[in-house]
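WARN retry 2 of 3 for item q-0093 after timeout on previous attempt; input resubmitted unchanged.
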Amino acid sequence: MKLEGLRVVDLSLFLPGPHASQMMSDHGAEVIKVEPPGEGEPNRHIGPVLEGHTVFFRNTHRGKKSVCLDLKTAEGREALLRLAETADVFIEAFRPGVVDRLGVGYAAVSARNPRIVYCSISAFGQSGPYRDVPAHDLATEALAGLVSLNIGQDGEPAMPHVPVADMAASLLAFGGIMMALYRRVQTGKGDFVDISMHDAALSCTPNITGQVFAHGRAPTVKHERSLGGGAFYNIYRTRDGRHIVLGAQEIKFVRNLLGEFGRLDLVPLCERGPGPHQQPLIDFLRERFATRSRDEWVEWFRGKDIGFAPVKDLREAFDDPQAEARGMRLRDAAGSEHIGTPVKFRDEPGAPRFALPAVGEHTREVLRTLGYDEAAIAAVEAATRSRGGAHGGK
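OK item q-0093 returned
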């Protein structure tokens, strides 16, 4: 696999960091998760449980090793620094300044290992007036303007149910780490990668900043091309209370559908672009799509060259034959389901490993690889237990 031989040390919690290192693990990297004493990674305790682990944890920590260290102790801090000496990548997601206070910031780690690629993921990055403000996905999306774009039928902002800032930050962290590793081949030196969830959210807006940059004003959401202002990029309710979407605004698709409906006279409304002038066409399509069920429309559209899709719930989405064909719904030996890995290679495909670690399961194993003898391992375990009650593992 592409990342075999790469060692990643991951201190991050929740979603962005663990998701980034999960992609590395799926492609062969050795990912060592450093968990805090006590209950460890919060994902272990969030949401439904399957086969003894939460589904959240299963899809962010498969194939990883777990080391439990208390970084507030000298023993835990030194163990982490020694581990970092052997690593290629180091990921953390504390609020800016925390790792420096703990003695494991980039300066301390790179002094021990100049080749390290050190990635910090935080809400607002390592600089700027919001640097120290606490925030998770929703707050960063709100400040980045994304929540203002997510307007419901009542005209009010709706909850963005996919954590865009979290996931975009994860993917940017993954890409930034890969770029730094590539550069290291030429220079022999690592680098510091500063990822802001707020930056990541802002970077998702190139298709909707036209009014912002061209005219200096916020977009009128319901008139925007990709936000509901176009009849052929919109959501429609069907007779059975389900929904379908039209998802392609090219005029050839407009002509194809309106020709089927015998309403080519409405094509000029789309030729003028998005905006309130398309409302008569939207009204016509709403009435038409309300005459059949969602699945009847699926059959009606089959084979037609029109941008169309049924709105599926998440259960239906993972049962879809496209998801199955692309390996995005995987099953382990017990038959339990997992999200697949989205990065596909022809010659060296990813191979997710479904084993899930207990908190600190690999502490002893990893410390031995660092040259710790039994007495030194016992001292690290004792320091960890004294503060959090966590065990050292096998």
